[in-house]
Every structure is written in structure tokens, then in C-alpha cells.
Design brief:
The chain is mainly α. The protein is built from 42 helices and four strands. Strand 3 and strand 4 form a beta hairpin.
Length: about 900
Amino acid sequence: MSIDTNDTDAVSNEEKDKVLEEVERRRTLQGPAVVLVSLIGITFSAFQLWIAARGRQIGATLPMLGEFEIVSLQQLQVNAIHVTFALILAFLLFPGSEGDGFVARRLSRIPSAVRDRFGTDHTLSRATTRLADGVRWAAVDPSRDRITPVDGLLIVLSLWPAYYITTEFDEEIQSIPITGLENARAVHEVYPWLEPVASPLVSLGIPLDFSLAYFLGALGILLVLEATRRTLGVVLMGLVASFIVYARWGYLIPRNSVVGALSIQPTSWDSIVENLWYTVEAGVFSTPVSVSVRYIYIFILFGAFLEMSGAGKWFIDLAYALTGTRKGGPAKASTVSSGFMGMLSGSSIANTVTTGAFTIPLMKRSGYSPSFSGAVEASASSGGQILPPVMGAAAFLIMEFTGTPYPDVIVAATLPAIAFFFGMWVMVHFEAVEGGIGGLPRSELPDVSTALRTGWFYLVPLVLLVYFLVVARFSVNRSGWYTIVVIVALIAVVAAYNERTRLPLLGSIAALYLAQVAAFATYGTGLGDAIRGAAGLESTTAAYSLGGAATAAASDLGLIAILVGLAFVLVQPRGDSPLLELDEAVDDSASKTATIIGRPALARNTGYRFGTFVLKSMDSGAKTATTVVVAVAAAGVVPGVISVTGLGPNLAALINTVSGNSVLLLLGLTGVASIIFGMGMPTTAMYIILIAMLGGPIEDIGVWVVAAHLFVLYFGLMADVTPPVAVAAFAGAGVAKADEIKTATTAFLLSLNKILVPFAFIFSPGIVLAREVDGEWGLIGWSDVADVGFFLPEVVVPVVGMFVGVYALGVTIIGHQYSAVGSGRRALYAVASILLMVPEIPLLVCENALALVGMSVGLTGFSVTFPLRVIGLAILVALSYRNHSRLPSKSAETSTPAAGDV
């Protein structure tokens, strides 16, 4: 049973898509353009799935011929293809101009100015008008519904640099670091068939003998900047472009000026283009894009497959089944489900809209205001990107940039993430207590046991993902590939499963698995090769042990399930599939495509729906990844420039100088910069740029590198809900039909945990379960837990203080606990929250004040922070007692939070 959303605030798929397109400024395409975009997106996903499954060797295995290789790609080539796919989709999905921008508005005034000057019938006026109409037709898309000729030109140009890198790698690209970019061959030398055209032009003085590698490198960088402008706005594009300009002319900064530390050595354009385009060590194709190729894309695709399988809707149903009847249940369910889906999607905006389409109407219906409903969804969705094990792909970036094992990253991130969602839970509860908001009737909610019985299999991919990454310690790429195979296998089995088929279906899978085990145990190879070996067509290898055979066969279980499930579906294409509840987007696509090909009845065919599910997931994953890939490609320029110019140490020195070597001021400046630079950016791009600029100084203060990176991530995510940009909050307001600024302000307040919690784990590394031993940081072990003298003061006390402080902060923000809290007492709750979570903040302020008068005193030891935490707890207990005692007995009975309510 799904949640009953029978109310006027329900959000349709069309409304949801419209809100998402408005926030992201994405095109609404129709007809052949949709097919083109989908085909490119599916191809993009297929390429990435191949990389995840087989690596950089492109080939195939044919019967009787064995395995053969078509091409073996280098990392630079793979990265170039990866970025080129994203550029093409960006030029297709996002308009270059809608005619309302700064430049477009001023250019549009030229025809009228010419007519005013020369008259309407003047030749120049008519020519100017026709030229303006032509430019508008070629480049402007005011309705965001068509692909312009300029888009087509940019797509063709995008293919050229990638084609050059792919085809000329051995002859040209490898020699560039030795001979220099300026000495690379000219265009007619690379493509001899252009010689008859190029020679006459060169003889006329037209310079066509320039380096083709230089030209294509510069072209590629400009295309990345244009794609960045379209997908992410002028701010990020301008920031990246300013770094490129700085790399060329930063030497002009006077060394004796205030910002003299930013002065660099002179660099030529050849060197800049070479380092930003033709290496994987710096620039566009550097570590960020490599991480996207290996980690980010595959997990975006994993999230798309999971969402399209119906897991997103099922998890929302389960959350409502568990909490929907409680006080403020709809908002609590939204907090849980949105956090979960935000963890997978990696996009605060997309998750706010897609999950919010279900959760926001139900919150409004239960009594929450529209702005509060939209704010809860936006805050929880942005918080999902700090929630292990996926963290919206941030976990993999942190792993790559810090060199920390993945299990250590997610263990460190767990307690702070739980604290954030605990704070969200507390705040929506207090809002419900204040507004007398109850839950939904049980009759309108799914039954818990029924939901678990009909959808438990959706949890299997997540459990296996954690197993692959943490227990089996597979590579991230391999783990992502296996979990996608698991999802497809589960849906294939579910599509074929009903009362009539369950025994033969499951029996066939079991039989084939046992046959595969027997083949490995007998011939040392899979069933197909074993049959050929038994027939003498192929040699066999050493037999596996029984345990080894079972393990080896288990890796093929997903493929076995897919093949068996599809066989049953093809035999009974219209068979009943009671457990199959794919996402509405899949069924909509199945219906539309079946109608287009003139066979609308196919939309009800189980096999057709299954195929649509696979292709729609690949298409959706590619569209979601487009912005992320463009962002990481552009963001890679910033650390590239910093490393190439040697700016890093100078920048760190400047930041330390500005902060006056104050740890508190340095962290504060880093937090503010993270919010500012993070506005309107995807999490990945924000993280890469901020770590490049600010990561070094934070690490230099002596904290664990993972904690420093999490600090930047937390503050950067605040940008999604911080006015005036607050893209996630505005998306929530669009779904909730609420005031944007009010929604954004509320979302910002609900997310304040993302400001105090990072300070807490920076000053108390025990919160991220870290300890420094002999100058080396790492996670605590069982011996550390057994060391009571360390574990209690350094881990237990800060963790308890963090959670109790989050509770106090919730009362401060909502202004209600058992009864209303006045402004004066709210200030005291805020003081209690700070003392409980981060007593180091007031102590460092005191240290700095004493330092100004020449007194150097260390106040942040446990002997001082622990009493302050005790004082904070005493303040909270006293305030809570007084607040509770203000309730009349009858009111207390109905409003006091009971264990079952919270």
C-alpha cells in the first residue's frame, strides 16, 4: 500500500519536472531531440559501465574465437571521452542564452538604436534587423525548448579535442611534455588530406601552420568554461577563468604589495594550455575527473538504478509506515527518507524536488506551514550528502584527496551525520508540539509488515554495497558495478515472480548456480567454458576447492538471475508481477515510447517495462552526472593552476597572515568562504575548489586531514540552504508553493547543526573516532576503547556533549520545548548548546583576548572544557525543568513529548 496523497497539494510528475527545470534552468525538449539526448546519455552510461566492469581495455569475447582487444585506452583518453560526453549533453540540455542576460539585453538594443538614428527603411537598419534576427535564431532559446545551430556547432567542436587525444596519443600527445606544445605538428601535418587547402592559404599569409595541439587545448578549455556557464552559472565560470588569467599574468602583482604573496613566476600560454589540458596530474583531466570516471559516475548511476527500481518510493513508504502516525510524523519521515535518498543522489536540488513531491504535500496536510515543509525537505536533502556510506560521492573524493581508506572515511563521518539528523528530528518534533501537529491516520499509511514483506529486497543492494566496500574491500569501481548488477538482477527476478512462477523461477536460479559451482569445482572454469572443455574445444584449468568454487560462482549469480528472470518474462510477457513497482518515470517512459512506435499495448508488457527500466536508469544517471562532470572538469583548473604556478604555499601563508595565526579565526574564515564559494555549486565542485584553496591551512593547524576535509564539506553544503542563493531551499519552495526567502531562511536555521557540529569534531577529534599517536592520525581501535583514561574524556564526553548540545540548539531555533520559549531563555539555550558542543569557542576567544595584553594561557584542555560542558548541561536541565513546569497539568498531558512521540 502506498501513501494516500489525496489532496490538492499533490505534485504531479509534470509539476515536479517543471520545478526542477526552472531551478536548474534546463531545457524542456520534445520529439527527436529527446531521443537524441537519451541515446547519448545511454551511450555515456554504457561507456562508464564498461570502464567499471572491464577497465580501460575495450574488446569482446566471441564463441570459438576467444577474447580479443579493440583498443587499450590511456587514463588521459578515458578522461577526455568522459568530459566530452558531459560537454555534449550540457550543450543539448542547457541553453546558451535565453535573451534576458546582461550581454543579450544590450545587444538587443542595437537594432532599435540604428532605426532611431537612420530610420526604419534605411538599408543599414534593415540589415541590422535581419542580422539580429539571424543571431537570435542561431543562438537564443528564450523558451528553453529547442537546440540552436550554435549548440550544434559547439557539439561538433567538442568532439575534435577528444578525437585528437584518442587518435594521436602515441604519435603526438606522449611527445608534448618533451618537445613542448609549441613544437607539435600543424593541422595539415596531422591531417595530410588538408594539405591542398592549407598550403595556398599559408602562402597568402594566413597562419595555418600553428600547433594543432595548442589550438585544440585552448578550444577544449574554452568549451569547458562555456559548459560551466550554462550548467552552473557565471560565478563558477568566472572564478575558473580568473584562475587561468591569473596563471598568465599573476607575475604582474607587485611583490612588495599587501597581496605580494600571490605573485608568481611568468608563465606562457603554451605552458598553461599544456598543463591544464594534456596531463592527468593537473588541470581539466586531473584527479577530480579521474575520481569522476572511477567513482562518482558509477555511484550516480547506482542511485539512478535504485531510484528507478522503485526503491525511493518504497523507502518513503517505509519511513511513513514507521513514523507517520507519530507527533509530526510526516516531517520525521521526510527527514529519514530525504536523508537516505540525498545520500544516493548527490544532488540537493534533485532530491528536494523528487522526494519532496511525495513528502512536502503530506507535511502541509498534517499542519506544517508550506515554508517549513519545503525547508525540512531542503535541509534533509542537503544533509544526505554527509550521510555514509555514499555521502553523495563525497566519501570517494575525500578518500582520493587524503589517501585515507574508504572504511576509515565513512566511520569518521558517521557520528557527526547522525547528530545532524538527530537535530533535524528534534526540531520537527518541537515544531509539531508547538503547532499541535499530530500524525496521519494509520488507514492512510502503509503497514510496516506489508511494506517490509513486499520491498525488503530493495535493501539488498545497500547491504551488499557496504559488504563489498568495507568487508570484502573491493575497489570502489568494482563495488559500484556489482551493486548495479544486483539491482538489475533483483528487478529481473521480481518482474518474473508470482505465485505460479516462484518455485520454478527460484529453482532454476539455484540449479544454474549449483551447476556453476560444479563446473568450477571440476574444470576450474565457468559452466560455458566447462562444456566446451568437456567437448575438447577448450583447455581447462586447475579445479577449485568446493569453497572457492562457491565463491567464484557467486560472482556470476547476478548474471544467472538476470538471464533466468528474463527467460521467464519472455515466456510470459503479460504475466502478473505483484512485487514490481517501478518508479513512475519508468512507466511514463514506457507508455510514451510504446505510443510513439505505434504499439501502446507494449507499455503493459513486463519485458518491455524491464527494458525501459534499464535504459531509463542509464539515461537518468547520465543527465544527473552531466552537471557534476562539467563541474569537476572546471573545478580541476583551480588546483591545477595552484600546483603549476606554485601558489599553494604562498596562498597558505596569506591565509594564515589574514587569520593572525588564530585557529578560531582561520576556521571561521574557512567556513564563511566555503559557504560563499559553495553557493549554486554542486557539492563535488565546491569541495574540490575549497580544498585546493583552503585545505592546506586547516591541515597545518594539526587536525586530522579527514576532519579538515569534512569541515569544508559541511560548510560548503550550507550554501544549498543559505540565502540569497539557497538553490535547494528555492526548489523546496517551488514544490511547496511557498515564499522562497522565508523557506530559505527556515532551511538555513534548520541546518545550523552543519555549522556547530564541524567545530565540535575539529576541536574534539574523538567525535570522528580519531586519535593522534606519535604524530600520526588514525581511527581508534579496541585498545583505545579499553583505555578508559582516553576513551571517556576524549570520546564519550564530546560525543554525548554533541548530541545533547544539538538538542539544545533545536529548542533555540524552534523556540518551543514543552511550552513556548521566550527570546531571553532562547539565548540561554544557545549558550548551553555552545558549552555542550564546543566549549573551545568561548575559551579560544578568551585566549585571544588575553594574548592581546601579552598573556599566553592555554585554556582548552579537558580540565577546563569538561566543567564548561557540565555548566551547559546544568543550564539545559534547569531551563527544561522550568519550561515543563509552566504547563498546566492538562496541557502537559497532551503536549509533553513522550518516548513514543519522539
